[in-house]
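Changelog-linked ticket: adenosine-5'-diphosphate example.
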Amino acid sequence: MNVQLSSAFATGGVFIGNHWKAAQSGRTLDVVSPADGAPFAKIAAGGKADIDEAVATARRASEEGPWPRMTATERGRLLSKLAVAIELRTDELTALEARDTGKPLKQARADIVAAARYFEFYGGAADKLHGETIPFLNGYFVPTERVPFGVTAHIIPWNYPAQMFGRTIAPALAVGNTTVIKPAEEACLTPLRFAELAASVGFPDGVINIVPGLGEEAGAALANHPGIDFISFTGSPEVGTLIQTAAAKNHIGCTLELGGKSPHVLFSDADLEVAIPVIVNTVVQNAGQTCSAGSRLLIEKSAYDKVVAGIQEKFKTLRAGTPEMDLDLGPVISANQKKRVEGFFERATGNGVPILAEGAIADNVPAGGYFVAPRIYGPVPRTNELATQEVFGPVLSILPFEDEADAVRLANGTDFGLMAGVWSRNGSRALRVARQVKAGQVYINAYGAGGGIELPFGGMKKSGHGREKGFEALYEFSTLKTMIIKHG
Ligand code: ADP
């Protein structure tokens, strides 16, 4: 795979005020390819001093620069230009994303297409966000207006670096915020490249600032910075608590997207030819490292054996390989993540949870890669961690249910509430169940379709709060101002 790394973005810079510079500490971090465990690039190890500079630069761009004062149409046009710039470099960016994250090329390509689509969608939406007028006392005129917060902070994870950049930055920019991004240390080359591309298509200085670095250094410095006005965070529940605490101390708002244990609820009358490939794909895509992975399959008891047989057959054909092999899944992101997934496997064996099927790792993968063969467990006891905890690996947990009421109880039986799928040919039943499931998104006879750029996304319960994606994100990244005008 030919990845050009000549640009400063992959040799250890922070991008502040449309310029690359070394981290003030001079430190860098190695970027390791998950497919072979070998370092292939360097990123800056940004710290508090770099975050201070990035926030001050974003603040100046907000208060003195053109960005919030441009018309929404002009801002939208620049977002659209960035969408085109990304699209024109799809091959280059696909190779970069695949190398950095280990995902198969076809999945990386879909991510780049989605990243461009975020800028296209919010480029078009920028000038469609408008306020209202409120009937009030005689002699008054009361309009409302959506206004930007000012400087928004974005802390994003490693699983979908390109998509996460588009998802969180595009709507924040569309409404007129200036931004500081702390991407994940494990994978962040495409976000760095996007920031550089944004400058090249004409984004003014200081609108997009990006400081890579460790979570506990650059991330903590950004989350706790008194100069930011809002935080968007996607990542683990543990760090989510730190982010919300930091936001509370600064009296600012935040959105948190903290993962899930999303269920497929499958009734005996489901169309299995449609359902099975989709269900399997939702848990192996990105090697299961997807917040909205459909990692629990709840099957109506009367259809249990038949559905399990269908899933087993499909699972046994799955192969993990390098990005270039372009198989069903790649490696997981790091040695640590592999260890975490294998820890679940060991405890499942210790607890006697049966393995129903296993895919394979392709023969000729590099020895240093972080490959995990995908697995299905079932029937998983309802209280076992495989039924309740997010693994973030290619693992499907299967549980039988008795009837509709039991299905709803089981679907809602974890702390999470991000996404769900209901599979049934009985439309009334599917709708009844879907409406009782506590999740930010519920699909009926489909799951995770089309990248979901247009669809508001976020959690209920401990999956977090706030919504990104769709038009809703424009509300999330802006605040409301009401003007009370007395004209007599
Ligand atoms: P994951 O388990 O997916 O790696 P994390 O929550 O650890 O999730 O990471 C998500 C993002 O949060 C990454 O950009 C990471 O660097 C950042 N992060 C990790 N620790 C902290 C922290 N203490 N404060 C702020 N950000 C952090």
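Closing comment: Example verified and attached. DSSP finds 15 helices and 23 strands in the chain. The pocket of adenosine-5'-diphosphate is lined by residues 155-157, 182, 184-185, 215-216, 219-220, 223, 235-236, 239, 242 (CB under 6 Å).
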